[in-house]
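Hey, can you fold this?
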Amino acid sequence: MGGQPLFILDEDAQRTHGKDAQSSNISAGKAVSESVRTTLGPRGMDKMLVSDDGDVVITNDGATILSEMDIEHPAAQMIVEVAQTQEDEVGDGTTTASVLAGELLAKAEDLLDDDVHPTTIVEGYHAAAQLAQASIEENVLDVDLDDDTLVEVAESSMTGKGTGDVEAGRLAEVVVDAVRHAKTDTGVVRDNIEIYTQTGAASSATELVEGVIIDETPVHDNMPTSVEDAEIAVVDAELGVKESNIDASYNVTNVDELNAALDAEQEELQGYAKAIVDSGADVAFVTDDISDLVASTLAKEGIFAAENVDSSTAKDIVETTGAKRVGSVEDLTEEALGHAESVAVEKHGDDEVTFIRGGAAAESVTVFARGSTDHVVDEIERALNDALDVVVAALDKGGVVPGAGATEIAIADEIRSEAASIEGRKQLAVEAFADAVDVLPRTLAENTGLDAIDALVDLRSEHESEGIAGIISEGQTGVVGDPVEYGILDPAAVKREAVDSATEAATMIVRIDDVISSS
């Protein structure tokens, strides 16, 4: 080579390898996990996130916190992805998954310091994760998922989150009613449940609307603002004078020709209005513009019409009322019309919105969420989304398990009892996994004001003697008790997904021993 240096990477590239790379990645993952740890449980605290533009988000939702944080470290971003995956798959448990991933990394760091090979740690963690999944299945409760049980599931997911002036139980009842309306023979159609938020009232005013709420209002001041027993048309066309697609000019030489042109234009517009009237429609939602003449004519006929309705809203109207979207008013027939018990404009605060209630198709329902400020409304919306998702998960993805850390105590106990049968250093990783799972009940204890070590000892003792034990928040502190008796239940799917996603992220980070970044 003649003594010449050999450059494989760009001279500006940065490389970290070996224990330095492992330590850097693990530290970054742990730091992200710690940032959401204090939000866990009914006594968890909120975080205030302020953007560069001064926008403020106040929440204790793990996925929201991590998505709002400006995280650059690639390993830390993997923990963010854990929370996002958890959110996408089951809608809740994001903090649980993130905290578990961080603790798995912390235990892996100790094992690496003891010269346990990363591959051995990975194998042990995967073996322990399988034991954890088996334990979750064993802890699924043999209960009927009736409304009372589902209310407990929904309330458990919302307890400790910002719900304004109303108890979580009241919102949980609204959530369960919404899910029951969206339930079919093949499962719950989650997309048929919308949340519409509006400031200007206390959160206790939150209600379920059997139908949809839209921002559109009548295009003309003289149109009715309330229609009962409404026949509804949805039109995908512009109700105005059609323009030529070619660049043409017309030579008008006298008044008669001008009047003839104006008469033809007026006749065209009147034809649009007449077609809607003749169809029998009381209400028309148009996805394009409505000319002033058409609007005025429809107003005289007592027809409610809204223009520039976006495609998503039109889809919701169709699914609620059973209407058919037509490409022109000429296609409007009685069979193309939908039906609703009422279409009414209501004023809330300074805003007017339209409620379409009691649609004939009745496939969509809307949770009308209220709150005194934008921050309160945003947090209520997040809480309601989580509650809806956990109720759907309980119904469609394998039932419920005890909450309050009881399932985690059972998982850790099961893994420790099986660890003795695992040979070699992999046993150390399996036992480390069990210790990592303990972080969840330990954190619940800390957040409720208990001594974490004493609480963990009491939990294990209660679990051994009674078979079930969790951290119950009471007043300004917590007690060890049976979470089922207190109505604290979690979907089994949330626990399964948290174990899987946290294990995958932690093992992926542990296996990295070289980080190469370009300038």
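Oh, and this one too while you're at it.
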Amino acid sequence: MPSYPYRTTREDLRVPLPDGTELFARLWRPVTEEPVPVVLEYSTGRLTDWTATDDARRHPWIAGHGHAAVRVDARGHGNSGGVPPTADGLAGDGAEVVRWLAARPWCSGRVGLLGTGAAGETALRLAALAPDAVHAAVVVCPDGPHRLGGAVLASGGHTRATDRLADAARPPDPRYVGDAWRAMWLARLDALEPPLADWLAAAPAPAPVAAVPTLAAAGWSDPSAATVLALAAATTGPAVRAVLGPWPHGLPDELLPEALRWYDHWLRDIDAGALAAPAVRSWRAGRWTGDDPWPSPGVREVHYGLDGPLRTAGTASEDRWVHVRSPQHTGLDAGAHVPLGRPADQPPDQREDDGRSVCFDSRPLPEPLDLLGSPSLTLHLHPAAGPALIAARLCAVAPDGTSTLLTRGVRALAAPSDTDTTVDLAPTGATVPTGHHLRLALSSTYWPWIWPGPEPAGFALDPSRSALTVPVRRPAAPTDDLTFRSPTLPLPPPLHLTEPLTAHPERVTVHDIGRREWRTELSPTTDGTRTHPDGLVRTEQTVTAYRVLTATPLSARARTDRTVRLERPALGWDTTVHTRTELRCDPTHLTAHTQLRAEEAGNTVFTREWRHRIPRGAP
């Protein structure tokens, strides 16, 4: 154990809710007679298995620096009582946990929140419910909407829903809850509902706001980068600092010292320079730079007309309309919607997808182009256009032809009454080198990121009345004092991983030429069997598959199968959860078929199926 300013203790406890339900929690405390503030990580993740390794590294480090650190399993998850709540119920329970912690005699009355992914989104909601007790928050890669530009996400959406259902269906652990585990499990299973239909039926969320001083962070390639910049752009309200780095989805170790500075400032009144940092710190072209305020006065908008600075080839001079009609497998090189750091997560060379798109290229750049922010695209569409999907990718093309994705965006349109349409692209922080040229690639489908539109006709645009706007930042020198460094964390508990003998490739695509069908299958490299130090054996396997016929948008299918097995050989305890979600589409709806099966010692104890029809159109 490394040496920190405080020695620490650890204990498991139960947090009572007003209705009598108890939530399972793990507490790390600094050894001191003085009351200390609390950093709460409240999550649907299971602290005795799923998050145990990260918890054992991060929370003792936080406690060793003067804050009590608490991990709490949400209602109906892990070893907590009750059944899984709604999103509002989840945040409401969290507010009660905050109030309970703030009233402990060892607590100073100040609570900070820590959340990643879904827990980050919950932390933002929770802070708004209990701002009197919550004095600060650190949110990393907070979850966002399940639609993009009015289009329904295919990549990740049903997979995340299948994972959430499987995780919620896992039983409590008899080591921690005793013989009550089976009754708790069956009650939990009986109350479960797949989240996907509710996710897609939800009204568009308002722009995110921070109810308490908030440090927000994400990787540039994570979809939450837009949320992080939106939080930083708020002109009123509590202090916000944003960090965008070269990270996959998740909380990077390098961010922990910055999080500690944030907590020290707002929870312990220690001025460690947390507010001296610029509003936005970003990693670009191998260096850290800062911008203050945000939006930055150092960023200007540069417009590229699609009939001048950007041009396409092959359009007849007498026809001012450029027609975009892409094969349905355009987008196979999109990479993961939520990158987790696996080799196949990042989008590869874009030349194959470029070949399936209509491309507008600039001349080679005479000097580097530094991009920082969210590009946008204004298109003038043919007035006879029907329902359409517009996918736009911005790439940097090297002199050897290599096409590197910088950012992208989509827009789903009904039959437009207004022919002028805007497509917002995701934020980017990139430098395009001298001699490269910009490429705007337009396609009428982007599978398997986005569900295809109902018609294959595509759309037509007038380049003379269309333009790309990019945010260009003036050159800036790297700033050494913005560098993030990993702290010395405790060693994680020993975890033995046994990889499967017949592991699937991480990502494989098959083109069935005779059927004109494209199939993509993904299997996480994190699958396998893990043996925890306390004797728990956890085995996981997930396979996600997509298929589409080249010329038939309504042929699109997506399916995810997930299996989780939990065993305690010393107790003779052996449980397995199988979940499957399969989606299909028709002109107006998506059809979701979800299956759940739970087994004890190989015998089925629960099974259920759900079918939902989800409107394609945004609510």
